[in-house]
Design goal:
heterodimer; A: 497 residues; alpha/beta; Aldehyde Dehydrogenase, Chain A, domain 1; 2 domains; 7-stranded mixed beta sheet; 6-stranded mixed beta sheet; 16 helices; 23% strand; B: 143 residues; mainly alpha; Ferritin; 5 helices; 2 strands; elongated
Chain lengths: 497, 143
């Protein structure tokens, strides 16, 4: 199968976009590397404190007029952006694959999910409507309006370079706020491309800004008194130690989404043929680098024959996964983002072995990479058996293409293990029995719950939920909750004398 | 060659439909009396390509098993569109039916395999199979 054409050509510089101008960062310049072929595909600047200050200043100045632009007019900018995103659907998807490594199917899925958020935000004239009550006392009326707050910071992760900032940014600008987006500097081109389209859509200067960089930019956002709130998606330690307390210190609103170690529960009555592809996607899709990926598979029941047959089928399917460069349409799994992340995943596999896990499938040294690419960032699917509930590979986030299997006798025990996990992002059950499904949904502590779904990714019109170590804040990104987050309720009581 | 991902399957189906469309265009040239009919078939093929592409791009979310939805073998769906110069209408229609059979089998098997995984994609495969039935009847009447 031929490789689809790469959209990023030469070695372009990912520039900042501040106040409607493309400007090269004055900070250190670093390489952007395609993890599949290890080629440098671009450069990006690690922006300075002054640069983030400049972006916030521009966003703050733009807020005055943007907030006064009627919601119906604001959403017309979003309709234009939506149209441009659709027109550029394929290119946007290929950019993700080229800079991140995920397969083209996964990138197109990510593009669709991102676009869906713009679609939902286009309904802002309705979504932003308030409430009213006539005659709360005789001749006195009361109503509530939702008002924008000012500048918001949007901090994106490396694993979904296109979609995740769109969980926030469209809602922020639709509600009349202005934004400063900081993409992951490992994968800056997806957001650069979106920002080019936002510029083409005609957003006034300062409404939509983007600053590349790392910790300096994040700290600059957290400490800046001109930023009203932050949305963040990234690791749990950064969420807990940096973002949430940082927002607290300066009184910012905060949505902070962290990591996960999701558990998928297999009941003996599940539809095996339909379940296995779901498990492949959940555990090995996006090379395991998603906060909704499965990490532990709990097999319920004492039927050894079912267990052995099921695990054999899962192993056979995992063994046959085609690895390579995601722009090859036959590839089912791409590399992990970089060699350092690969090492971290391997160290977890080794920890598992030390703690007593048996390797059913060892992906540490992949034998075949379609296209003969270097194995620098490639890891094959790994399946570990014989896990127990207290092992680190069950309780800590691995964020790679691994599946750990443990066995329990009852569904109650499986739910107990889910609930004692430090993370509660996307646990799921596979069963044909409605009673088991309901019991699981009811008793499990998890922001997103899957019933015969391996990746419990909420649609744009639902909040992207999460609990405990996976989330800090009150409201979530996406849909109506995002609208609430980006607005304040202003309650008015009128009496005309 | 095995087809496992949605992306390569959709590309393969596009190839089949394009080849089929080109075949009908050649028939339109060869049989002027039926030109409009064959050109309409060709246009329909292109419409089906769009329909499948739209279904794929509309549902290919990261919750759905795009990379693991199919297990097709391209050897089972080889399209031979060669037609000798002096072929009459009856043989041309027979050939068209053979081509349709290959395309329909591909859609049907693809729909079976991805039925519980890709939502609107298998649904559209089935719709296309259903819509094509009248074409089959027309072709049979030309034999």
């Amino acid at each position: 199968m031929a490789i689809l054409e790469e959209p990023i050509k030469g070695v372009p510089m990912a520039k900042n976009y501040i106040n409607g101008e493309w400007v090269e960062s004055k900070g250190e310049i670093i390489d952007v590397v395609n993890p599949a072929n290890c080629q440098v595909i671009g450069k990006v600047g690690v922006s300075t404190r002054e640069e983030i200050d400049e972006a916030v200043k521009a966003a703050k100045e733009a807020f005055y007029d943007w907030r006064r632009t009627p919601a119906v007019t604001r959403c017309r900018y979003l309709f234009r952006l939506l149209h441009l995103l659709e027109e550029n659907f394929e290119e946007l998807s290929r950019v993700q694959t080229q800079e991140h490594g995920k397969t083209i199917d996964e990138s197109r899925g990510e593009t669709r999910r991102g676009i869906e958020n713009v679609e939902v935000a286009c309904g802002i004239p309705t979504l932003m409507m308030g409430d009213s009550s006539e005659d709360i006392a005789s001749g006195i009326d009361e109503y509530l309006i939702r008002v924008p707050l000012g500048v918001f910071g949007v901090i994106g992760p490396f694993n979904f370079p296109f979609m995740i900032p769109l969980w926030s940014a469209p809602y922020a600008v639709a509600t009349g706020n202005t934004v400063v987006i900081k993409p992951s500097s490992e994968v800056p081109f997806s957001q650069t491309k979106i920002t080019e389209l936002a510029e083409e859509a005609g957003f006034p200067p300062g409404v939509w800004n983007m600053v590349h960089g790392g910790r300096t930019v994040v700290n600059g956002m957290l400490e800046h008194p001109g930023i009203e709130g932050i949305t963040f998606v990234g690791s749990t330690p950064v969420m807990q130690d940096v973002i949430y307390p940082g927002c607290g210190k300066t009184g910012k609103r905060c949505i902070a989404q962290g990591g996960a170690a999701n558990i998928l529960v297999i009941m003996p009555d599940c539809n095996v043929d339909a379940t296995i592809p779901g498990l492949m996607t959940s555990f090995f899709g996006n090379a395991g680098q998603r906060c909704l990926a499965g990490q532990t598979l709990i097999m319920v029941g004492e039927d050894n024959r079912f267990y052995n047959d099921f695990v054999e089928k899962v192993t056979d399917r995992a063994r046959s996964i085609v690895m390579g460069y995601g722009l090859d349409e036959s590839v089912q799994m791409g590399p992990v983002r970089d060699a350092k992340k690969k090492e971290r995943i391997i160290s977890y596999i080794e920890t598992g072995i030390k703690e007593g896990a048996k390797l059913r499938l060892d992906g540490r040294k992949p034998k075949t990479i379609t296209g003969g690419y270097p194995d620098t960032c490639f890891l094959g699917p790994t399946i570990m058996e014989g896990l127990h509930r207290n092992m680190r590979v069950v309780r800590e986030e691995i964020f790679g293409p691994t599946m750990g299997i443990l066995r329990v006798k009852t569904l109650e025990e499986a739910i107990e293990i889910c609930n004692e996990s430090p993370y509660h992002n996307g646990h799921a059950i596979f069963t044909s029995n409605g009673k088991y499904a309901r019991q699981f949904q009811y008793d499990v502590i998890s922001g997103n719950v899957g019933i015969n779904i391996g990746i419990v990714a909420p649609m744009a019109f639902f909040p992207f939920s999460g609990m405990a170590g996976s989330f800090m804040g009150i409201l979530h990104t996406q849909g109506k909750e995002a609208v609430r987050f980006f607005t304040e309720s202003k309650v008015c009581i009128h009496r005309w004398l | 060659m095995k087809l496992c991902t949605a992306s390569e399957t959709i590309s393969f189906i596009r190839g089949l439909e394009e080849k089929g469309a080109a075949f009908y265009e050649s028939l339109a040239e060869r049989f002027p009396a039926r030109k409009e009919l064959f050109l309409a078939f060709s246009r329909e093929n292109h419409k089906y390509i769009k329909q499948v592409q739209m279904a794929y791009q509309s549902v290919i979310t990261d919750a759905i098993e795009g990379c693991f939805a199919f297990d097709l073998d391209t050897d089972d769906f080889i399209l031979n569109t060669d037609l000798p110069r002096d072929t009459g209408m009856a043989d041309a229609a027979k050939k068209a039916l053979e081509i349709e059979d290959v395309i329909l089998r591909c859609y049907t098997k693809g729909a079976e395999q991805s039925g519980s995984l890709l939502a609107d994609v298998p649904r559209n495969f089935k719709l296309i199979v259903k819509k094509r039935q009248s074409r089959l009847e027309t072709l049979r009447s030309l034999r």
